[in-house]
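Field notebook, page 142. I keep forgetting to write these up properly, so this time I am using the form the group agreed on. The chain and the ligand, zinc ion, are recorded exactly as supplied. Prediction of the bound pose follows.
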Amino acid sequence: MAYLPNEISGPVPNDADRMFWHYCQQHELRFQQCTSCRRFRHPPTPVCPHCQSFTNEWVVAPATGVVFSFTIVHHPAHPAMKTVVPYNVVVVDFPAYNHVRLVSNLIEVPAQEIRIGMEVAVAWETAGNGMVVPRFKRKISA
Ligand code: ZN
């Protein structure tokens, strides 16, 4: 099972998400939390969309998330993608963090085994531009 290929590209941080990527480079998945209303948000924004506060902090994500939704991409939208389809795109939800969600990919999981609600844990990979990016693996039950 292929997935979005690391060799093709990688994220380019902007002013809003620079800290998110900064922590990713240290293998830390952190979400922005409003220090006023305590809600989490992603993608990061300078102002809280709930209470309009400008203050926030970066809190380490729970060890486990759950697949909220997913799709399998079969059509190569760009010629460079021809060699990697099909690949998956998942939306990972963190219920304990007011359901903040992250779009990513599952690795080492065959497409036919991906399920909504399955528990996943972050796994770090390096994209083509050298940026460390968060992917997810199936959580191994203890
Ligand atoms: Zn707020």
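OBSERVATIONS:
- The pocket of zinc ion is lined by residues 34, 36-37, 39, 48, 50-51, 53 (CB under 6 Å).
- Helices lie at 18-25.
FOLLOW-UP: compare against the apo run.
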